[in-house]
Amino acid sequence: MPDLLLELRSEEIPARMQRKAAGDLKKLVTDALVERGLTYEGAREYWTPRRLTLDIRGLNARSADVREEKKGPRTDANEKAIEGFLRGAGLNDISEAQVVSDPKKGDFYIAIINKPGRPAEEIIAEVMPGIIRSFPWPKSMRSGPASMPKGSSYAGIEGKGSESLRWVRPLQSIVCLFGPEHDETQVIPFVIDGIVAGNVTYGHRFHAPGPITVRRFEDYVSSLEKAKVILDAERRKDIILHDAKDLAFANGLELVEDEGLLEEVSGLVEWPQVLMGTFEEDYLQIPAEIIRLTIKTNQKCFVTRSQGAEEGLSNRFILISNIEASDGGKEIIHGNGKVVRARLSDARHFWNRDQGNLPDLETLKDSAAKFGLDLKKPLDQRMAKLDALNVTFHAKLGTQGRRVARIRKLAKALAPVVGADADLVDRAVVLAKADLRTEAVGEFPELQGLMGRKYATLQGENESVAAAIEDHYKPQGPSDRLPADKVAITVALADKLDTLVGFWAIDEKPTGSKDPFALRRAALGVVRILLEKNVRLPLLKAVSHAWVNTFDRFIEIDANYVIWPFQHDSNGILTPVVDPLFNLQPPNKIDETPVVVQPKSVKLDTYQPVTFLYSVQNKGNFGFVESLEISPRGDELTKENSLLNGDANLLSFFHDRLKVYLRDLGARYDLIDAVLTPESDDLLMIARRVEALTAFITGEDGRNLLAGAKRATQLLAAEEKKGTVVADGVSKELLKLDAEKALYAAIKTASADAAKAVAGEDFRSAMQALSTLRAPVDKFFEDVLVNDEDAAIRANRLALLKAIREATGTVADFSKITG
């Protein structure tokens, strides 16, 4: 069967775009061919910095003939309906249609439309121009004579203006060949802005720039390799990696591998040549992370270290050239070395400046007092500067300084829950964002946290504080490590909960695949920390506390405006929120008792605070309420929101992340749903229940009890739906048969034992207690007719089924379990 070879050669394509572009080309071409009736055996895409290539094997020589039946109107339909049918079917006269009889619908017309197949060459030539013109490059440009304004021309090519081809870089040539594996192939001719598809490509820009005539994929690959072009990107990566390792080993070193850099570098060269450069050892005083990023970011080079060393770097680096230099690469090494030294000199300057004093310490005293900072210490100075500059975290959530203040309050509340030292937690929070004002992080944002830890260690901070500064950002993905120290765990939880509650409060939730603030990652991080570090945290309480702290963004720090959350108490009276778990008390900003204003629209429940704004004017030594108003900024938070209400509330968002996490660990979705309720906020207990339920259900007793419990629940639900009377409780006097008496006794014992075990968080014992119901339930359904003719007995037996549902419900909703 014939094969198709397509090459689109251009100026250098950015490395970050190459892999996806090649995949897009494969999908667009194969989808277009299949849509037009051609099938193929296999397809593979390739790419280099200057070309995208597609190899399709076993493509049909022509599309199949197609026979379609188009149903028309009844034979007695009006003339307009018949004319419309003829136009749609492409018939000249109704005599060309066939009449089909249907016993129910009567006689009606059908048109038999035969579409002959088309040669593959014709289809390929038809689809290629459209695919190339509409190619989905993230960024593209117009170039060449065709990009000239309409009406102008050059070298016989007419200008098309805005209608000319847009490509990532100027497109230079197209190869499009089709034919059998062993016979002669033919060029599929089509033209794109004066570029005619042919059978000629070009090799390496410097080593073999001349034309190369190709016939099919095999000689295309071999001809390119002779012309110093390795087509397969994975092979280029393999060559780079192995040659770099060998060169490092030969010099008594080992390569510090970097998959991202390897992917990028393989997209910068067509003929990789591995070389080694050096820099002065004095630069090794700079932290290894800064050296690595400086060399990686600016020169796309790899770093090395001594063989067997886990930390530290050597003063040798690995660079990848695209030229096989006649001098063995000496000039290339020299040039790269000059740039590396210049960049490392800048990095050393950043590193040294970050350890010195800021020039404007007098202006930072207010910020230092606010956060308890010591302006003799460099990192404290940077935190004070961050606050004093009012650096914005988010337009609707205030500055970084206010965010740190919120996290500080929440972390203080979480510290005893986690078991962390409150003073160390407070110090860690205060310094956690300080490195955002360091020059090293300004140059390399990916070092935030890590540099903070280094600077904290240098100024003598407690080891737990320093670790928390780095680790509070973790985990940053499902495979990233978790913070280990309790101080770091506390700060990480506070940071993530503040982020989630804040963005929920301003209605910036993830939608579909869009999650610009990485809220799914933050929620998954909370889930992983709670479960893997065995932290018992009631999320509703924590979210409520973070929600209260969010209002700090809307408090004017003067005597005129104060915001505080209120709730309805048991008597329906609005009272200030006071949370004993987190020691949450109303602020003491005014002396007079505030007058409360009902907000515009807020759903109230046990945990959702309500905000109010009242205005106070100072008169001498006391204050009194002069006017009442709602702040426009306050409205952003007093609108009805879904923090803890509705289908998209924050707790359900945590539940979704928990489900993803547990399913990845192998938990069954139905068992998770059976344990989870909309109010479940102790994620660790949910996970333990799922674990216990899984072990129980996989055993024989569990499977049999599940069948009996589901039968009882389904029968009860059916009777309730019909309106059958169910007794409020089981009456011993109405239990007539031994089987129902035995079941009632077993339920009482099992319910008590299960409830006691659940209260003690011993879920396996709770399951074991319920397993004693297996035999009585089976015997009940064997010997007892639930729908007895006596209404009282029937109601009593239905109450017994209800008791089964309630007993099993202490650990899970068995009706949600499949099987």
From TrEMBL:
Catalytic function, reaction form: tRNA(Gly) + glycine + ATP = glycyl-tRNA(Gly) + AMP + diphosphate
Matching Pfam families: DALR_1, tRNA_synt_2f
InterPro entries per UniProt: DALR_anticod-bd, Gly-tRNA-synth_bsu, Gly-tRNA-synth_heterodimer
Domain of life assignment: Bacteria
Complex formation: Tetramer of two alpha and two beta subunits.
UniProt GO BP: arginyl-tRNA aminoacylation; glycyl-tRNA aminoacylation
Keywords on record: Aminoacyl-tRNA synthetase, ATP-binding, Cytoplasm, Ligase, Nucleotide-binding, Protein biosynthesis
Family classification: Belongs to the class-II aminoacyl-tRNA synthetase family.
Catalytic class of the enzyme: ligase
Enzyme Commission number, as recorded: 6.1.1.14
Origin organism lineage: Bacteria, Pseudomonadati, Pseudomonadota, Alphaproteobacteria, Hyphomicrobiales
Entry GO terms, CC: cytosol
Species for this entry: Agrobacterium fabrum
Subcellular location: Cytoplasm
GO molecular function, one term: glycine-tRNA ligase activity
Protein name from the UniProt record: Glycine--tRNA ligase beta subunit
DALR anticodon binding domain ranges (all copies): 709-806
